[in-house]
Amino acid sequence: MSELHFTVGVIGLGLIGGSMALDLKRRGFAGKTLGVEKDQVAAEAARTIGLVDEVTDFEDCVRRSDIIVVAVPVGTAVTMVTKVLDMFGDFSTSLEMTGKAPEMGSLSFRPSEARGEISNGKIVIDVCSTKEQICNATKYHPMRKQFVSTHPMAGTEYSGPWAAQPGLFDGRACIFANAEESSPKALKTIEKMYDVLNMRPIYMEAAQHDVHTAYVSHISHVTSFALALTVLDKEKDEKHIFDLASGGFSSTVRLAKSNADMWVPILSQNHDNVLHVMDTYIEKMQEFRAAIADYDEDRIRELIAEANRIKKILR
Amino acid sequence: MSELHFTVGVIGLGLIGGSMALDLKRRGFAGKTLGVEKDQVAAEAARTIGLVDEVTDFEDCVRRSDIIVVAVPVGTAVTMVTKVLDMFGDFSTSLEMTGKAPEMGSLSFRPSEARGEISNGKIVIDVCSTKEQICNATKYHPMRKQFVSTHPMAGTEYSGPWAAQPGLFDGRACIFANAEESSPKALKTIEKMYDVLNMRPIYMEAAQHDVHTAYVSHISHVTSFALALTVLDKEKDEKHIFDLASGGFSSTVRLAKSNADMWVPILSQNHDNVLHVMDTYIEKMQEFRAAIADYDEDRIRELIAEANRIKKILR
Description:
homodimer, about 325 residues, alpha/beta, eight-stranded mixed β-sheet, 12 helices, about 50% helix, globular
């Protein structure tokens, strides 16, 4: 187990980053966890809750960690992963120049690798909900092999260090995007990391990932936002409308609580796929509308029966 | 407690009727429960599960019960409540003619009422998700005062006697529609019944109910059906798309499992309100679409922030 005692640095101590730090430490994969959080209130909360062993700054975190988890919104993540990879490059230069590693987490640093293909064994991963842009942006980076692009498909509608929870990832799927662009060793380490989080790995091309998540995640958020807007509009006149909200409504509208900082860049980055799915969705709504407007009960029944097929598919 | 030992007859032993029969018996409100179920497989299942003490036919059930719960889909319910009220009329005639009550549940039968305003004390209730049509259809029935129109706002996406469960109604809202059209005594009895089911009563006009439920229940079902149709369309090409379905998707699409027998007449009866809400909803989707199409991140952020207000309202 001692080989698993990595120093893990998490940049962005929100729901995903915070939950990951918690379980990686508790389950012995991380010997030490470092965290970076630019929001001062959130940083203080992460300290108080004890999400990581130490909250520090970006440079110190990258310098001292074996594995760096970039867990910030997707717009910022692209820039940040590149910046981390740039620093990996600097470390490797200094290694070659001086023959001596800068201070860093001890266990992943293997001197035998210091002048090999992988200069210092550090790995950076992202956990973004869109994969094509970040994979494209890093494709030709000289340190690309030390980057593993992942999307652990877990979460809740809440955000921030307050939302972090143990066991968040257990049993869920984790996508590895363009895994062949990472070094086999870096990939294996991160596969092990997600194995400790009890996630099942799925491998796919970044572009394919973005199409699929538009269908099974992004559109759900848009439909929930639209539902909330529709009902909130009505609420202006009818103060007591929510007395009637049942479990069905709550479940359908739940995702409308989701954070704009996270979702604006996702919808914007996955622009083409999201628009395509929205168009199909609006067509289906129009079909339903026409059937109801025509009192065409046979057609409504057909549409519902077809929709019911989701039963056979959902776990 | 003995005054609460009514004979309760439930017509339609599905999720709602079956769950109600279970708890009314377990909690001592019903001394005996009778059930009517036209589907033979469901009737046999209800017997096996023990949802009611006895499964019988419609006439026998109405004759022997103090309280008749009509728990069939809304299209059929209108006719059936009227038919029960017609039978109440017949009973009252036979009472007046012979001075002797037909066989019926003992405790609610109060001989002092036999020639009073309420001939035999029997009560019928419906539990429909739309209220205007059933209230209009029964408005001038000579036995109207013995009808209490309710909508217990509880349920799951499953249906049939197999879906019935104890505690289904605990803590949820129950609408009483046009309560002033029922006799105070009948109303009080049914209020007590829902109190035993741990529901909180809300009183409103039938028409107002139908507007509100279009917003907080019916539209949620339509958006879930449309979401299921959208994703199932895609699934034809991409067999593995559902590997990626996360908790958020499952929760948003959950209502798409709902039964056509129940939902076709709801959408059809609440036609005008549902179309109105769908139009608002489609507008909101179009606003979102335009913002995404224009890469207008400020506008997307505004829309999400506005939708987020749902947090303050949902329990």
